[in-house]
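User:
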Amino acid sequence: MPLAYLKKSATAAALALAFAVHAHATPVMEMRAEDLLLMAPALKESLKLNANQATLWAQTESRTRTLLRERQSRRERLQAASKQALEAKDVELRELTGALDAEQAATSAEEKQLRELWLTVNDALDEGQRHTVAMFLGEQLSRIEGPARPAAPHRSEGEGRGEGRGGHRGGAGGPGGAGGMPGMGSRN
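Assistant: Predicted structure:
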């Protein structure tokens, strides 16, 4: 093998190892629509959509944003109601589970709806565009820059108050679910 090829390979391997420290896989069940929507403009541009595809994308993106706003509003009301109930003198925690179960069921139904909407967009793409989408999602599953999240959060007493379940406040591991992007699930 030529010496130049070996040097390039060694350099590439060293760079890969250096970046591997700061990269970790994003579990499919932790991917969130909110996070994927932030990356959507770059993906959309790389797909070079035709006029019909662009119209369908815009409609689906708008529906997704509307649904996520409604979910956020609903969860804020649930948070306030739960907080008020927990401040009551004779609080019974089991009584709070009904609202949590209802929210989880609503989120699950929304995720299915969003998956179907985005799969309709996927159906309208040509093979090359579908490959681009698959590569994009694969990259999200392969690595995300930043420190690795622990598998299960460890919290000391009093830590994480006022935050979402798991002690996170938004972000890739925040409260909520995947929001229903194609193939994505929920953390809840």
